[in-house]
């Protein structure tokens, strides 16, 4: 098994190059393949096969940390600086409503799922002790509404055992990956789905037209100086985010530890907050003109590396180890999805709204922009804002879910 990070990174880069090369071929095989499996999904799933077949060992790899802490903030910055704030505000409240509905689907869907298993197969699950199934599900609720910090907070709140906690981490990784792949597939067919749903896409079209106008009206051939400016802004804002996070996270952890429930003690939380706010402010300045010289293309390059590195963490073969818990996760996720789709159809919301709202719940700030960009790059700031909001409310909602899970436990 290959465990060297430089070698793994080289394999990832070669894989991405092969995917993009074959996606441009005119042969009927490649045309059909990428018609049903979009490039973004291929970039995610193909690296996961290296892990599944034992070709690569990422247990001690630092690539995932580098991707989430360095590549993702730079990518976010370059996407946000070109956003049209006015058009963004015209999207209306549907996204927020769907996000909250998705969170409710997780909080309520967990207890309903547990009730089904308690009624039909009560003997297959542990109900008491530190490794009780309801305790593990409470931690998963924290991750699915917010993120890893919220999941860790629930572990401490409910005194969850390490065995059930590790199982739920695996369930989260697998289903978050599978669900994101499904949403990316939907993005590739969003126009047909919106027509079938008779969705109102008026506001999305306005946002897309605004973004396209900025890209085409001032587009020019980028120079070396332009690329240097892009990297200076992206990595400069990333560095600022880390600097502030290195100060604020320990400060709140030492002086206000109770605010851990709001993720104030998480460095990643502050990195996302600072990068988003600074980039948002820069979008009102001349820095926004970097979009005309390839800021979004540079961010897309980083984004695909981020997607591939995330794919390396997924091991689909782990489903066979704990099938009952993965079945719980599947049914629980189904409750969430059905509720989001029903409310979305009632509001005639586009599939982009449903997908982004759902991924902001299940994936958080690290992956929600990936799904958002699959529909349109202008959605990335919205996805980040919703994900950050999820971090703030996730601990409370997960605690409520945990109490409901405990109440329905036989």
TrEMBL record:
The keyword Transit peptide does not apply. Keywords: Membrane, Transmembrane, Transmembrane helix. InterPro entries: DUF819. The chain crosses the membrane at residues 6-24, 36-56, 62-83, 95-121, 164-187, 227-248, 268-287, 299-316, 322-344, 351-373, 379-401. Pfam families: DUF819. The keyword Flavoprotein does not apply. It comes from the Bacteria. This is DUF819 family protein. It comes from Shewanella youngdeokensis. The lineage of its organism: Bacteria, Pseudomonadati, Pseudomonadota, Gammaproteobacteria, Alteromonadales.
């Amino acid at each position: 098994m290959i465990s060297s990070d430089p070698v793994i990174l080289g394999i990832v880069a070669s894989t991405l190059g092969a995917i993009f090369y074959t996606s441009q071929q005119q042969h009927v095989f490649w045309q059909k393949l990428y018609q049903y499996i979009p490039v973004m999904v291929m970039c995610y799933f193909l690296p996961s096969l290296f892990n599944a077949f034992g070709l690569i060992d990422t247990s001690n790899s630092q690539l995932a940390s580098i991707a989430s802490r360095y590549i993702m903030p730079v990518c976010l910055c370059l996407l946000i600086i070109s956003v049209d704030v006015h058009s963004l505000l015209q999207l209306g409240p549907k996204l927020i409503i769907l996000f909250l509905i998705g969170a409710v689907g997780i909080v309520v869907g967990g207890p309903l799922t547990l009730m089904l298993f308690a009624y039909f197969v009560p003997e297959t699950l542990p109900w008491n002790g530190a490794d009780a199934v309801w305790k593990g599900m409470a931690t998963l609720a924290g991750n699915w509404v917010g993120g890893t910090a919220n999941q860790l907070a629930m572990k401490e709140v409910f005194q969850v055992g390490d065995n059930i906690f590790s199982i739920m981490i695996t369930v989260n990784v697998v289903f978050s990956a599978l669900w994101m792949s499904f949403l990316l597939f939907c993005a590739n067919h969003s126009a047909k789905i919106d027509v079938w749903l008779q969705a109102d896409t008026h506001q999305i079209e306005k946002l897309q037209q605004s973004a396209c106008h900025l890209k085409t009206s001032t587009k020019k051939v980028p120079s070396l100086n332009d690329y240097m400016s892009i990297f200076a802004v992206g990595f400069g804002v990333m560095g600022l985010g880390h600097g502030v996070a290195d100060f604020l996270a320990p400060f709140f952890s030492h002086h206000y530890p109770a605010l851990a429930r709001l993720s104030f003690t998480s460095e990643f939380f502050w990195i996302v907050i600072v990068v988003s706010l600074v980039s948002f402010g820069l979008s009102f300045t001349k820095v926004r003109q970097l979009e005309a010289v390839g800021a979004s293309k540079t961010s897309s390059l980083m984004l695909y590396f981020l997607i591939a590195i995330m794919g390396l963490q997924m091991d689909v073969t782990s489903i066979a180890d704990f099938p009952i818990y993965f079945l719980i996760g599947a049914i629980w996720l189904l409750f969430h999805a059905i509720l989001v789709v029903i409310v979305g159809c009632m509001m005639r919301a586009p599939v982009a709204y449903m997908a982004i709202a759902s991924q902001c719940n299940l994936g958080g700030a690290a992956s929600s922009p990936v799904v958002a960009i699959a529909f349109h790059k202008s959605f990335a700031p919205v996805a980040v804002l919703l994900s950050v909001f999820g971090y703030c409310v996730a601990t409370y909602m997960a605690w409520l879910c945990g109490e409901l899970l405990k109440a329905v436990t036989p």
